[in-house]
Amino acid sequence: MLVWLLRAAAADGLVNEEVKRTVDLSTHLAKISAEILLANQGGSPVQSFTLALEPELGPHLAYVGASVKGEEEEDESLELKETAVHGRSGTFFQVQLPSALAAGGKLRVKVETVLTHVLRPFPSHITQAERQLVVFQGNHYLYSPYPTRSQSTRVRLASKTVESYTKLGNPSKNDEVIEYGPFKDVAPFSQDTMKIHYENNAPFLTISSITRTIEVSHWGNIAVEETIDLRHTGAYLKGPFSRYDYQRQSDSGISSVKSFKTILPASAQDVYYRDEIGNISTSHLQVLEDSVEVEVRPRFPLFGGWKTHYIIGYNLPSYEYLYTLGDQYALKMRLIDHVYDDQVIDHMTVKVILPEGARNVHLDTPYVIDRSPDQLHYTYLDTFGRPVLVATKNNLVEQHIQDMVVHYTFNKILMLQEPLLVVGAFYILFFTVIIYVRLDFSITKDPAAEVRMKVASITEQVLTLVNKRLGLYRQMDEVVNRYKQSRDTGALNSGRKTLEAEHRTLTNDIAALQARLKAEGSDLAEKVGEIQKLDGQVKELVNQSCQESERLVAGKVKKETYITSEKTLAGKRQELISRIDSLLDAL
Amino acid sequence: EPISNNPQQKHSVSAQEKGLGAGGSVSGNGRPNTAAGCGGGGGGLSGGLTQPAGWQSLLSFTILFLAWLAGFSSRLFAVIRFESIIHEFDPWFNYRSTHHLSTNGFYEFLNWFDERAWYPLGRIVGGTVYPGLMVTAGLIHYLLNLLNVTVHIRDVCVFLAPIFSGLTAISTFLLTRELWNQGAGLLAACFIAIVPGYISRSVAGSFDNEGIAIFALQFTYYLWVKSVKTGSVFWTIGCCLSYFYMVSAWGGYVFIINLIPLHVFVLLLMQRYSRRLYIAYSTFYIVGLVLSMQIPFVGFQPIRTSEHMAAAGVFALLQAYAFLQYLKDRLTKQEFQTLFFLGVSLAAGVVFLTVIYLTYTGETAATMATQHHSLAQHMPSLYFSPLPLINPIKPVILNLDTERLFDPVLSAFAVYFAGVMVRLMLTLTPVVCMLSAIAFSSVFEHYLGDDMKRENPPAEDSSDEDDKRNSGNLYDKAGKVRKHVSEQDRPEEGLGPNIKSIVTMLMLMLLMMFAVHCTWVTSNAYSSPSVVLASYNHDGSRNILDDFREAYYWLRQNTDEHARVMSWWDYGYQIAGMANRTTLVDNNTWNNSHIALVGKAMSSNESAAYEIMKSLDVDYVLIIFGGVIGYSGDDINKFLWMVRIAEGEHPKDIRESDYFTPQGEFRVDKAGSPTLLNCLMYKMSYYRFGEMQLDFRTPPGFDRTRNAEIGNKDIRLKHLEEAFTSEHWLVRIYRVKKQENRQALDHKLRNVAAKQKYTSKKTAKRKRGYVKNKLVLKKGKKLNKKSV
């Protein structure tokens, strides 16, 4: 079996000529990077090679990436595809080389692996005064399907304090660095447990779940909200938490997390940071040139095993992230963003809420991600709901902060829908008010009130007409005045004629209204009759003054007599008018 | 030329007068209005405008809208300074139950049994709350969500009271308009919108019953006055519905159900009986009674308890009176009748007064007093502050109309109530607002009215145009009926323009100062959420002390979901609302012995307290300690109440005198009584505080609240351990340790040779267990105590 396998591997003809591994254990992650010098000792060119990960570490793998040194000293990342190797347990990836490796050729490849939750706190419960010790269990050798000629491993720890470590090949320890190797001629798939027990007080923060909601509005705004469940996954706190010690002794609760920094995009505005019971007032915001930094301080320091929950949200201008060509739109945003340095996300849900009416939605992600069925979201002024893309992924680290692109089409006419809706709503509101005010909705008829209203409306008309009639007299006065100056009898006569005609119609109208008042049984009819009578007298007076002026013009009376008679006439007229007024008032 | 001008001039004067009369006299209620009464302003402005009635309603609308806006925005201090957060204690419960309502639905809310309160008793929430507030907020939230307005229920709760303050202003306007006139109504609306007495219970975040109840109260009054005036069943049913809403909202509905009968009674005494009154009151009493009994919390109280008997008595009296009136027409013996009437009314009056006397001076006040005094809610100084400003300008108006009589009755009653219990000052506030509005209104009418007439620019007669437009609408509702009221009714009073302007200026100054005062009081006294504290540095920057939420949130996140938290009852609602944990006692205070048990635990020594806590399944103990920052409302300052309440139930174990020094002082320093220095509350408050030196001028363990160096610095806890202390030590939470393992036996366990190969003969299905090493008691032998 083994022989067959060796032959299978050798069929590729690949050999790890030289391997330099670095295991970085200074945080709560295990970042393993290896520089491999691949040599093709087979007879034919090779298109791809296989990367392998130990079966024990496989489930903890968050990220793996391979790159080669390009022509201009640039790292060119390679394409990875998960595969399986027959008869071997472990996780395997097939790496596509940029160009075929000719027989006898050599290539330097850089492989980067990030593992989460591989540092196990030991002891698992500590008191506030104690320091946190963790155990890492790994492999001394590079786990590879190819034989390795020579390899060395360098382990970087978080502190100098090391309880114990495996001593294969007599490693050298210098401060926080342990160097293993070099090991010569290692067989493929060889494993030898490397165990290091050391002090690590780095924040063991884990985001047990995050929901990132991106709401796109075509009115110029993108709202981002992240709901985060945070947990301290280091050694559990045993016994009491003493605030006194925590405040007075700097090394008390050294592994606890007081605060951390979240970096938001530079254009982030209106940042909020809250939880179920309100604003978390302990946070600080700093606007830098190329980013916005939030110092997130949970309400209480996080000790081992403690958790918290919060929501952070902000707005972004859409012109930086939304691209459009006709009806085609593309939203290019980070699938996941920075929460804290060396972040670990156990479970992530991303929701992208597109504007109402977006169609042909298509999501491009930088790495494989599980799509859940689309949902609908209803918010302000929505009628048929906004499409929501939902995607989930487990076990993410900082390397996953990459852009995704959402393509969709959107008919621009639909932009009018929301304003029209508002306009329509107001229209209906005002219309209802108008209808309500104008119509009579009472279920019973109150005859008395009805009559009162009728009488009131008739009186109103009477008032108008009487006022109009009084206005006629004033017009007549003016005509007379003009006549006195111009001595144009024709004008006077025509004026008189119109007066007569209009006066007659008005008087008739009033009489008709009076009859109607009488029909309604109102006693106001008598008063109107009285007004009519008085008005007749006024009319008489007007006529008289008219004749007087004619006589004056004709020279039949002297000016003085005319003035005195005019005065008496005016006085009489005034008296009558005031009586009419008082009658009108009484109406 | 001078000749011809004469008549025209004259005429224009008369036309102007008409215009004025038309502007000033339109009134919605058809009362003959005294001259430029209601808003002289309205009349003056509208003189030259096309539709005076339209202008007037526009003006009223604008003023009411502005009053609403002012009332709303002056309640937002707390939101702007802090955030949109629920304040204080009771609102947290209301918020929590509203949240429950909005997530689980109405029926689930009515049947809600809250197992997280009053452990282990629980609380039937649906049957022990006035659901009006929650239902209102829930309904608004539901409607908004139906319209896809995604507002969080918390924001609905926070802004409910400020929004309702606008409705209160409008109902106050309506009521005052009914009682007096429109101008007074507008003034009253403006007053009620900003008066501190009402703001104190209705700032944004103060999500409490009173916030909506004052609206319901005013609206019920309005509808009652309206129904007495019209005698229409329609208005009375409206009044009943409003009363129903009030009953569902606040226990203060008792105020209405006593006030309206009192009004009726006084009317009867004054021989103002009318058919309208009969219809209004009979309908109101019966329908209102039936409706009020629909609220589960009220239940059968309206026919059982003494508070409601006055209404029943007046109902009976009214029936009797109406019957007598009926008989009056049939019988001849006039004298006998009047004698009979007198006898009946006297008897009823005596009964009525006795009932009132018994109710409000006796039982209710006395029973409530003990518990409620430990709450800082009853600080009279704050409550009285709005009063002195308004009281002196209360007018003595004895122009008594049937409905106007309502006013003095209302005010007398409200003053009486407020005297009995300071908290009911709230009911007095609207009355004071209305009375002062009337006073201001009549003062302005007197001093401002004539000037307006004279200074008014000549108005044009615009009736022509007006009529062309509206000639067709005979039934137009827009109050177009214009009447020419003669202006000569009132003789000119001999007031010089100087006096007028001085008085007006003074009045305006007073109003302005009132507005400033209101804003100041609101901003300083009533706009603190009390969940979040703030302190200001010398340079004006602000420090937020968020210890309460820090600790509550710690409880919420890092304790078992079913953990039971013991604390003094003040914090019960907050723990339930913010920490979402089970509490033993809360602000509902319905079970005094349970509270006394907690008080006893707090005031006993640690081992005695441990027994109590064990029996109550306590997991955590939460206390408030202000010694580090000098917060005076902490548990040590409340401690004597715990002792007293505990003593009330357990006089053998707890004696208040033990907690005082021989001189009768309550001290926490070395001179303090040893009982105090060793009780659980003291130990929890000062645990490890003795090591803490706050600054260099004071010794370690110096309590800033009580300005004393604590007497017991070496505190060791045996059964408790510190679980959490907030940043400024304001909240301290202790974990109650589980019982220790039993002591090791001083002898070896019996070594019974087990039957090695025992196999049951039963089939696997019917196999029954057996107990290995089962103790077999031998009769007649005493067992060793330790081995049990």
TrEMBL record, chain A:
Residues 496-544 form a coiled coil. It is found in: Endoplasmic reticulum membrane. Its main location: endoplasmic reticulum. The keyword Coiled coil applies. Keywords: Coiled coil, Endoplasmic reticulum, Membrane, Signal, Transmembrane, Transmembrane helix. It is a single-pass type I membrane protein. GO terms for biological process: protein N-linked glycosylation via asparagine. Belongs to the OST1 family. This is Dolichyl-diphosphooligosaccharide--protein glycosyltransferase subunit 1. It comes from Pygocentrus nattereri (Red-bellied piranha).
TrEMBL record, chain B:
GO terms for biological process: post-translational protein modification; protein N-linked glycosylation via asparagine. The keyword Magnesium applies. One of its GO terms (cellular component) is oligosaccharyltransferase complex. Pfam families: STT3, STT3-PglB_core. It is a multi-pass membrane protein. Residues 565-621 form the STT3/PglB/AglB core domain. Its cofactor is Mn(2+); Mg(2+). Its EC number is 2.4.99.18. Residues 1-15 have a biased composition (Polar residues). The keyword Kinase does not apply. Keywords: Endoplasmic reticulum, Glycoprotein, Glycosyltransferase, Magnesium, Manganese, Membrane, Metal-binding, Transferase, Transmembrane, Transmembrane helix. Its main location: endoplasmic reticulum. Pathway: Protein modification; protein glycosylation. Residues 59-395 form the Oligosaccharyl transferase STT3 N-terminal domain. Residues 1-37, 454-474 are annotated as: Disordered. Gene3D superfamilies: 3.40.50.12610. It is found in: Endoplasmic reticulum membrane. Belongs to the STT3 family. Component of the oligosaccharyltransferase (OST) complex. There are 2 OST complexes, OST-A and OST-B, which contain STT3A or STT3B as catalytic subunit, respectively. OST-A and OST-B contain common core subunits RPN1, RPN2, OST48, OST4, DAD1 and TMEM258, and OST-B contains either MAGT1 or TUSC3 as specific accessory subunit. PANTHER family: DOLICHYL-DIPHOSPHOOLIGOSACCHARIDE--PROTEIN GLYCOSYLTRANSFERASE SUBUNIT, DOLICHYL-DIPHOSPHOOLIGOSACCHARIDE--PROTEIN GLYCOTRANSFERASE. This is Dolichyl-diphosphooligosaccharide--protein glycosyltransferase subunit STT3B. It comes from Pygocentrus nattereri.
